[in-house]
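Fold it.
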Amino acid sequence: MVNPRKIALLSLLYFVQGMPFGFQAKALPIFLRTQGVSTREIGWLGVLALPWLLKPLWAPLVDRYGTRRQWIIPLQLGLASTCVVASFLNPVTHLAWLLGLVLLMNVFAATQDIAVDGLAIELLAEDELGPGNSAQVVGYKLGMLLSGGLLLTLVDEAGWSLLFLAMASVAVITLLAIVWIPSESRTAQTETISIREIVSVLVTSVRGRAGFWLLILTVTYKSGEAMNDAMFKPFLVDIGLSVGQIGLWLGTWGMAFSIAGSVLGGVAVIRYGVMHTLLYASIFRLIPLCAQVVLAVHGAPGDVEVIAVTCAEHFFGGALTTVMFAFMMKHVDRSIGATHFTALAALEVVGKMWGPPVAGTMVANMGFSGYSIVFVVGSALSAMFVVLVWCSFDRLRGQSAVG
């Protein structure tokens, strides 16, 4: 029986964490491209997500010391304060300072994510993994929708200060949800385990064939999609679309379809199981990625084609993300839940971090024709992931979380 209170709590907490990444991934590339920044430099924006890659280094501290509430409250206040400071900066004249603050926002959000992931693993029963991870992904994407879509459409009229002040206000208001968190939300076993023992359990959990396939699937599932996504926004700028159009179509409509896909992915996990749903979702994800190739080859696609491809990519990508997170959570060792899931999430970041710089360099060197090459490569990598899921099917099907 799914507990709605758990789902609402997790959704609100992940909502706040999605705001910094929504600005970085959606709003910032569009702004930089309109200021004449090259695609090569835009491709390197992924470096701002470095805290999400490095967070396993301090994840054992979150597992070992304090309660989930004691970590979440100050981190969320830190995020709100950073947004307030950013609201006083002019992004044109103080871009370096703004990028530094975005990096700091990601530090706060990534560390909070460790605590919230641990909380989710403790709160969710196995039959709640589908809805729970839908709440996680939907909440996160709603945060991205706010900072990278809805507020972006108002930037031309209200300025960038409104975007950051709105993010700060949301972070403060959602602190009210903290009262729902159990005051001692941490497993008794973790309270007595040492940092060295946490690391030892983590190393042991990745041994064997099942552990190998878990790592391979986690690190590869987003690689191709990340390449396509990084260059699709600059592609739309280069074919003459306005910032308002891109913000509406990608940041608002696209995100709405992504949320719908995430919900469907959670429902499908309940009905068909994690492994079957992972296979089907990865196959359907190929359709819009291949369609991006067609758009780039065409060179001047119409509005209807762009909107259709954008919405389809967000829908199937959203479904796959939810299923993949449920897959990861199903296989973590619950005795070190926050650390284990954080390590897997960091591998996911590794898998998608290298693609955007490579894609940006390809487009910078090849010109407009480079977009079609990037989209072909990204689609091929996503097709390879389907093969990997198929090969791992018998080794991972039916296995559940340990610990």
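Residues 4-34 form the longest helix (31 residues).
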